[in-house]
Amino acid sequence: MTDETPRETFEHDPIGHAEARAGMTVGELADEYGDAGIGASALHEAVDVYAEMLGDDEVTNFFGLAGAMVPTGMRRIVADLVRDGHIDALVTTGANLTHDAIEAIGGKHHHGQVHAEGKTEREHDERLRDEGVDRIYNVYLPQEHFALFENHLRDEVFPPLEAECEEEGAVSIQRFTEELGRANAEVNEAEGVEEGPGVAAAAYENDVPIYCPAVQDSVLGLQAWMYSQTSEFTLDALADMTTITDQAFDAEKAGAMVVGGGVPKNYTLQTMLVAPDAYDYAVQLTMDSPETGGLSGATLDEARSWGKLEKAARNASVYADATITLPLVVAAARERVESDD
Questions:
Q1: Among all residues, which ones are annotated catalytic?
Q2: Residue 3 has what pLDDT?
Q3: pLDDT value for 313
Q4: Do 69 and 322 touch, CB atoms closer than 8 A?
Q5: What is the distance between the alpha carbons of residues 72 and 82, in angstroms, rounded to a whole number?
Q6: DSSP class of residue 288?
């Protein structure tokens, strides 16, 4: 190669060697990641984008939360983002709302095992079945907590919604999640539960809508269906699309933090298909591959081709376990934003 050969795509900044030392803040560690390559540089970029989203008061922040994030310990992070005004619309699964409510009313998730010593995985799970314990990879949940959850719904959540349905014919899923948040907060306080009231309660107390478009795909949805068989309670599955679309229409700028894939990811991103503009910022935390053509693994650049992101949008994707990356990205971005205030 001669000196006359142009290097149009060559990046001149050399790779640096990240420093990790005692006493570093998360933000300082994320800055060190920026000197490195591969996933480290991607996480650093995600922090940059997310910090800009959170630091701009004109940005309406949409948050998609899929996967087993609540039962694996990410509940407080999301609830704090809601309480501190960093989430304007939350799109999540019925499963996350189920586990959030269980914690709010006194249930707990526990550390568990994928394999028990001396047993195959199947034998281990057969034993858990006999003992009445549900397994989420290496997290255990005693089944009696679902009975506690069912009673909570039937005593505290469904009756006021049933009364509304008798007058109006149906309630939206967002109205359902709002009432769930109210009940979680009130029972949590009345019972003096040591664990905080959680995500739905924080959303209720701060007027942040929670959208759960696939609520049927969960224990929460199963309980709603069973209650509807003997009452006037019913859900309007399409009503929330008006509310979330209105939020997109009214946004000066819009940003999306997408944790995991599935319905929450698509529902969050597709909102911009019927809005005059698209997302100005987007961060994706995922482990899904784009090669299958599925939405969960689709890149944010692919979303740009659909008009879900602006052509000039800032976006970043981090391919790693979200229980590792979400706390890092949130802590580093919040450190940067709050230090600038």
A1: 308
A2: 65
A3: 96
A4: yes
A5: 19
A6: -
- For residue 228, what pLDDT is reported? 97
Pairing of strands 139-142, 133-136: antiparallel
Specify the pLDDT at position 14. 86
Rounded to whole angstroms, the Cα distance separating 224 from 21 reads 51
Mean pLDDT by groups of 10 residues along the chain of 341 residues: 71 85 94 92 97 96 97 97 98 98 97 92 95 96 97 98 95 98 98 97 98 96 97 96 96 97 96 94 94 90 95 96 97 93 70
Q: Tell me, what's the pLDDT at 13?
A: 81
- DSSP 8-state code for residue 14: P
Alpha helices (H) along the chain:
26-33, 38-55, 75-83, 94-104, 121-131, 144-152, 158-168, 173-191, 199-205, 219-228, 239-250, 262-270, 300-306, 322-340
Whole-angstrom Cα distance, residue 328 to residue 331?
A: 5
Q: How far apart are CA 159 and CA 165, in angstroms?
A: 10
The 10 Å Cβ neighbour count of residue 321 is 13
Order across the sheet with 309-319: list the strands. Answer: 210-211, 89-92, 59-65, 253-259, 279-286, 309-319
State the Cα–Cα distance between residues 142 and 108, nearest whole angstrom: 8
Angle at 231 between CA 228 and CA 232, to 5 degrees: 90
Q: What span, in angstroms and rounded, lies between the C-alpha atoms of 181 and 64?
A: 18
Angle, helices 94-104 vs 75-83, to 10°: value is 90
| Residue-wise DSSP of 181-213 | HHHHHHHHHHHT-SS---HHHHHHHTT--EE-T
Kindly report the pTM of this predicted structure: 0.95
